[in-house]
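can u do me a favor
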């Protein structure tokens, strides 16, 4: 096991470099603190627990730290829309869902930039309402 020494370097300056490793190639490179901040700010996130019954829009219980806001609506059996109201979706958008307890429920999504995400819920391949009971969802979008 290696040892990391703690060296006093004084005050950091905006132009200082930090040694980083490329996640894909393993190559090392130098980056500035500002480049790290800019990368973090390039992503936006929405996290919530969703509950949906009958022919209603999902009700979201938000988790702290969201940088995306939006509204949920019901469109038809098992089909819902999330409309982003704070800015736009980035070039790359990913959704993470909590798994279903029954093993039969499946969720799918589609992204229509710049502001729409459609969400579908099915049981054994059939569009079905009321399958979201405190289901966790995370939407992350990036401009790369």
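np, heres the sequence
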């Amino acid at each position: 096991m290696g040892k990391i020494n703690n060296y006093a370097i004084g005050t950091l300056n905006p132009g200082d470099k930090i040694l980083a490793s490329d996640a894909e190639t393993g190559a090392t490179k130098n980056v500035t603190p500002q480049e790290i901040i800019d990368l973090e700010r390039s992503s936006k996130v929405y996290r919530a627990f969703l509950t949906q019954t009958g022919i209603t829009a999902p009700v979201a219980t938000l988790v702290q730290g969201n940088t995306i806001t939006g509204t949920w609506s019901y469109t038809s059996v098992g089909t819902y829309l999330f409309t982003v109201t704070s800015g736009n979706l980035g070039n790359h958008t990913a959704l993470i869902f909590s798994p279903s307890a029954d093993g039969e429920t499946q969720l799918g999504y589609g992204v229509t930039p710049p502001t729409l995400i459609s969400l579908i819920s099915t049981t054994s391949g059939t569009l079905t309402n009321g399958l979201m009971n405190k289901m966790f969802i995370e939407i992350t979008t990036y401009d790369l």
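The mean pLDDT is 85. hope that helps!!
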